[in-house]
Amino acid sequence: MIEDFINLIKKSSDQEIWSFFALSKKELKKRNLIRTNNIVGERGEFLTIEKYNSTPGLINLQAAPEGTQNVDAISRKGERYSIKAMSIPSKTTSIFYGCGELEEKQIIDKKFEYVVIVQIDDDLNLKKMIEIDWKNFLKFRKWHKTMRGWNLSLTNELIKESKVIFE
Q1: HSE-up of 109 (CA within 13 Å, CB side)?
Q2: DSSP assignment letter at 35
């Protein structure tokens, strides 16, 4: 079946391919596999919740209410998880807003307990998943002056300090 679909795509016009994409997106929303149009971010959140819930020894997660700033999943204990997905070859997360300004010297209120960084390939398959706590988020975050927020770079040092969930 997948081979037939691949052949259909290859023979399709540009407009038909866009139509397939739109139909696929609608079906993903209908099945509650995505909530927004951010396909990479949504896929990362789905893969994270699926991996945590299916792996013995990892905490069970559920999706956070839509629109919750910096929190994408919540554990049964109430621990907040921020999930940042990136597609290869990117090694930088999207922006964490509301986590303090560059000039602020005081300790900011904890916005989440953990960050899960998810790397996915061009086929939207999981390649790497790591977890860091709030303390390491504060240690490794970098200021993005244009976006006026923080992000993380997936460096060897950050990976060494993280809990590897999948590799």
Answers
A1: 4
A2: S
Domain spanning 39-166 has what CATH number?
3.40.210.30
Mind listing the pLDDT tens digit for each residue in 34-85?
Answer: 988 899 999 999 999 999 999 999 999 999 998 889 999 999 999 999 999 9
Cβ neighbours of 134 (radius 10 Å): 16
Q: In terms of pTM, does the model score above 0.85?
A: yes
> Is 116:130 a contact under the CB 8 Å cutoff?
yes
Closest CA to 52 of 119, 130, 107: 130
Half-sphere exposure of 51 (CA within 13 A, CB side): 22
The CA distances from residue 71 to 29, 85, 115, 162, in Å, are: 20, 13, 9, 19
b/e for 135-160, b at 16 or more Cβ within 10 A?
Answer: ebbeebbeebeeeebbbbebeeebee
C-alpha–C-alpha distance, residues 28 and 111, integer Å: 29
